[in-house]
Every structure is written in structure tokens, then in C-alpha cells.
Amino acid sequence: MTSLEISHLTVSYGERKILDDLSLSINSGEIAALLGPSGCGKTTLLRTIAGLVHPTFGTIRFGNQLVGVSSLVLQVNKRKIGYVPQEGALFPHLNVAKNIAFGLRNVDISKDEARSRVSEMLAMISMSGFERRMPSQLSGGQQTRVALARALVIQPQIVLLDEPFSALDAQLRNDLRSEVIALLREHRITALLVTHDREEALVAADVVALMREGRVVQDGSPENVYQFPGSPSVAISTGDALILDAQQYENGLTTFPLSPDAPSSRVVATGEVVIRPEEIKVHKIGQSNKGIKGRICKLDYYGHDAMLEIELDGTSRSIQSRIPGPVDMKVGEEVRVEHVGPIRFFARA
């Protein structure tokens, strides 16, 4: 097991910075998820860790070993990195056993040991008996399993996964993701998972790192980045969020469209509040006098819960509320809505 320490990493192509003074720490045995939009540098970071891209500035350490710095780069085959690229990228002309064994070509072990490791990997991914199958004869999920086995057969220090489940349908993606994460946790393998799926990041990782324009703008536990986002844009990256105009007063109170009337105190800051839909409680008329009135204009029912869109009385503003099932409300019904969560205020510059 090996930790990963990235400090002030910069990768430039000419005048363009792909990674810009990026720092990130992952403890030994942790799974970290890199979450961010396309083009923010996630894949470039993985390729730099793997040694396929040379840094312009900064350092990369595996435990106490320095493996990457602008003037010195440890060769790819000496890093003991397991790399699972997008869609697995199996060699189409090699069968399953030879695809898995390909990662051992630079490892100094006997042929018997190599065969033994391949058999262990096949058993680990529940594909014993598939040795002679060609990639074209495998399902998408099976191909991803084989790609993972190829990455693990070298007994790597760190595993890098670049959106390995993105090409799969929703149910298979969820099932296979659970299997892979369980496997990594069982063997205490340090892993870095690239994804643009916020649910996948929160479910799979011990650490979530949010990337923007080549930088990590916030990292921490899934609970921390979800509950305490550093900005409204970070909040949107990690889940459904309502961004409402707000004012903060001298006495410390904050008002926004769902709050009580403004206090008789001086406004000291204007900005925005971030509210999660599950923090909006909905009352049927007559059941409570709390909150303010509104009318349900949309209802999406998912079985275990529902997302309501509610137009607030006297405004053109609508808000979303996530409520648990079963749902005994309908579109057009008048309700009262109340905010019951924390107030996350962000002042405007």
C-alpha cells in the first residue's frame, strides 16, 4: 500500500496550462475520485501520474519515493502503476489470458508465476474459464473486468481508473462499480478514479477532489464536500442545489426568498445561499403555518422519493424540494414550504 502526494503540479503545452499548480494528497489504501467537467485536466493528471506526460513544474511522490519532477521522471515501467483507461482498451487480437498477462511483460517473474497470477486474477474477477475468449466475445462489463485484472496483475502501488464505467448502461454501471470498489477496498489498494458523474464520486470514494481549469478547488470526504461546498459552483458539482439571492445583516441573520421577513438591522453583505432540495420541507395546507405559500407546478415521482417544483406565491420564482415517498400531493395543489437545513451564504465580491 502506497500513499500519493502531488504538490504544485503544472503541465503546460506551450503557453497553455493544462494543470495549474495542482496539489492533492491520498492516503495509503484510500480511493479518491476526481470530479469535474470535460477539459478540466482530469485525464492529463492521470497520465502525468502514470509517467506518460512529463510535468513542467511540481512533484509527484508514491509514499517516500519521488517519481515525478520537471527535471527527473521515473520511467513508466518502474512506477508499478495499474492503469485502466476509458472503455478498458483491451487488445483486440489477444485473448483474455494474454490481455491480462500483457502487464507482466516487464516484470521479472517465471512463466509459471505469470500463469498463476493470471489464474488468480480470473478468479478474482469471477471469469475463470474465459481464458481463450477474445474481447469481441465479451460484454462491456466483462471487458471492464479484464481491463481491471490487467491493471492489478502487476501488484501495483496505485491504480488509476479513467471513467472505466462510462460506456455501460445505468444498471450494469452501478453493479460493476460496486464490485470494483469492493475489490479495491478488500485489497487496500490506493486508487484514483476519474469521473464526471457526481453520484459515482460520492458513492465510490473516500476522498472527492473537485477540479476546475487544471486545479483542485476543493477536496475532502464525500460528506464534507456535499454539506460544506466552497462555492455555489462546487455545490452544483456535487448534487442538486438551489442558488438563491440573499442578504446578510449586521446582527448575523441571513434572509432569502424562503426566510422570514428582513430584520430591522443594517445589511452588511449581499450574495447567494446554497440550499439542497432535501432541505425544503413541504406542508399540506392546514397541516402547518410554517414557511411560505406556493403551488406545485411539477412532480417527478421516483418511487422511493419525488422531486417537486413549487412556484412561490407573489413571485415568479420556483424552487425544488425532494421529499420521501409515498407522495400524497399533486400538481396544482397549494402547499407551504419551509427551509430546515443549514444556511450556506456566499458573499458577492
Offer a quick outline of the entry.
23% of the residues lie in helices and 36% in strands.
Description:
The protein has 349 residues and is of the alpha+beta class. The protein is 23% helix and 36% strand. The protein has eight helices and 20 strands. The chain has helices spanning 42-50, 96-101, 111-124, 140-152, 170-186, 198-204, 222-227, 232-238, and strands spanning 4-13, 16-26, 31-35, 57-62, 65-69, 72-73, 81-84, 158-162, 190-195, 207-212, 215-220, 242-249, 254-255, 267-275, 280-284, 292-301, 305-312, 318-324, 334-339, 344-347. The strands form four sheets. A six-stranded mixed sheet has the order 7-8-9-3-10-11, with helices on both faces. β12 and β13 form a beta hairpin. α3 packs across α4 (140-152). The radius of gyration is 25 Å and the shape is globular. The model has no long low-confidence stretch (mean pLDDT 91).
What labels describe this entry?
single chain, 349 residues, alpha+beta, six-stranded mixed β-sheet, five-stranded antiparallel β-sheet, 8 helices, 20 strands, 23% helix, globular
Query: Averaged pLDDT, please?
Result: 91
The radius of gyration computed from the alpha-carbon positions, rounded to a whole number of angstroms, is 25 Å
Strand order of the largest sheet: 7-8-9-3-10-11
N to C succession of SSEs: EEEHEEEEHHHEHEHEEHHEEEEEEEEE
Helical residue percent?
10-25%
Structural class designation = alpha+beta
Largest sheet: 6 strands, mixed
Shape: globular
Residues in β-strands, percent: 35-45%
Low-confidence stretches: none
Number of helices: 8
Distance between the termini: 44 Å
